[in-house]
Write a structure and sequence with these properties.
Rossmann fold; homodimer; 13 strands; 7-stranded mixed beta sheet; 6-stranded mixed beta sheet; 9 helices; Dihydrodipicolinate Reductase, domain 2; 2 domains; alpha/beta
């Protein structure tokens, strides 16, 4: 079964990865249409040795597409995705537009694939930092139940988009050249700094990024009362989000048991030989589709507690890979 | 009362700061002797407009000194400090050599100044990441008691020393020049990366850096059973350690109450206007002597929980400033 596919936001950081993954993972593409804003229209992308021109996004251009990846901002998704779904396509949306919509499944194929089947034309892919967290927590949850989760993130600039990648690149070049560092994207210099500020602030003092981690994790696990808290921090890393995770389980798990469960879980790679300097690193996770877990140890402050270090490529598993995996599941299930 | 002072390790990252602080804070110096390894001996340092030559460290050279700052590695401190103390000096040691020695006070002047008085010739200054944590926790502990503390750190390379500052500098220059990145100090590239590995690994899976945070905090607070856990991470920042701290108190505190307590605490500056992009940043803390606290909010996962973001200059308050403050307390108390 080959599928007529479209990517909206084909020139962006995530859209570019979706196209690469469709090719790399051998997704059964019958036709590929690439769409972006007027600014990027006309540029060409190579897919399976063939050049495809990016068109300006339009409803008409998406007529006949069966699976449409939306890798654009929340506003555009909110407006356009329902219309595209009404044309008969299944939309896989990476924005925040539909993630908390009870009519729209919020899916991570390793964790809640069954939810995908309930779709009514739109499937939401969670935020990057949520995806890697739930993939790592799921085997622990299944074996021992979750009582409490405390997360601190170390998030790469590529999560903000191509402009932010350019800003970090520019700032380190300015530094190396002895020039004044300038900025446009972030409210403060990102090179050689840590910003405890991702997305806007909520009235409760949390950022939306932190609340996404909280609300999306609860929704994906189907546990509205899960005690979970987060601090989300931007660090001067190009690609790869890291998370320091402390989890309290209902039943006791040893570090050894947790490591064994993680090693057997889909989409997880355990890298945990600290005596040989082996642990997950954002630099090593870049370009990979799995979630890497290491530094697994019994926690010192919580009964039935485990601490671990969870890393993934935020553009791949944190966005593009998860979306393509949702599409693969749809194909397997006959859309 | 003017004091005969010596700095051992005067050419290092922390020693250099101690000399600067003695001048900046108007410490009553009668005489200043500077010591280092043979390699650095002979180089000159300007102190109050006068050039002082660094000598090769020796017991004889320290005879007659009243306060001796040790800003050297653990091995050298362990060997030399007791001999210097036996000569009649008070040693203020920044290494790990004596921190858990029950005969040696482990002191943060804002938190446990009374412990300084019990010294027998050596006073230990805690590890950088501990100092800023206990300064921020202390007003909360005094008002509401500590039940549980969970810390994730974002630590600057200057904590490793001058070689590590050079390594990050070199790697970003290599990056900017399109060259291959090389490394010597860290087991992995530090530029554009996060290393969940500071100091060596313990059998329980924690690093010594993490266990220092745990053990030193318990000792400073005089609470051997405090439930506290840590993940210590090196980030590509030159100066300024950041910490995401979740604390569960015995009595409920609102975020507003916590902010008020922090604002009134010695050595703490509250920076907490997220709506104006005001929160602590390592880049802004660099060169400052205070501990900066912001992002104070009621925690979502723990009853009576508070989350906050704590930043300080690891070479100043995290090392040199704390040592000089201990010396100031000694002078105030007549040594």
């Amino acid at each position: 079964m080959a599928v007529r596919v479209a990517v909206v936001g084909a020139a962006g950081a995530v859209g570019t990865q979706v196209i690469r993954l469709l090719e790399d993972r051998g997704f059964p593409v019958a036709e590929l249409r690439l769409m972006a804003t007027k600014r990027s229209a006309g540029s060409k992308v190579t897919f399976k040795g063939e050049e495809i021109e990016i068109e300006e996004a339009s409803l008409e251009g998406l007529a006949g597409s069966q699976v449409v990846f939306f890798a654009v901002g929340t506003e555009v998704s909110r407006e356009l995705a329902p219309l595209v779904a009404r044309q008969g396509a299944v939309v896989i949306d990476k924005s925040n537009a539909f993630r908390m919509d009870p009519e729209v499944p919020l899916a991570v194929p390793e964790v809640n694939p069954e939810d995908i089947k309930r779709h009514k034309g739109i499937i939401a892919s969670p935020n990057c930092s949520t995806i890697q967290l739930v993939v790592a927590l799921n085997p622990i949850r299944q074996a021992a139940g979750l009582e409490r989760v405390i997360v601190s993130t170390y998030q790469a600039v590529s999560g903000t988009g191509i402009d932010a990648i350019r800003e970090l690149d520019m700032q380190v070049r300015q530094y190396s050249g002895g020039q004044q560092l300038t900025r446009e994207v972030y409210p403060h210099q990102i090179a050689f700094n840590c910003l405890p500020h991702i997305d806007s602030f909520d009235a409760n003092g949390y950022t939306l990024e932190e609340m996404k981690l909280v609300r999306e994790s609860r929704r994906i696990f189907g546990d509205e009362n899960l005690a979970i808290t987060a601090t989300a921090v931007r660090v001067p890393v190009f690609t790869g989000h890291s998370e320091a995770v402390v989890v309290q389980t209902k039943k006791k798990l040893t570090a050894q048991e947790a490591r064994r469960l993680l090693a057997g879980a889909p989409g997880v790679v355990v890298q945990d030989e600290p005596e040989h300097n082996v642990y997950p690193l954002p630099l090593n996770a870049a370009g990979r589709d799995e979630v890497f877990v290491g530094r697994v140890r019994e926690d010192l402050a919580l009964e039935n507690g485990l601490s671990m270090w969870v890393v993934a490529d935020n553009l791949r598993k944190g966005a593009a890979t998860n979306a393509v995996q949702i599409a693969e599941f749809l194909v397997k299930e006959g859309l």
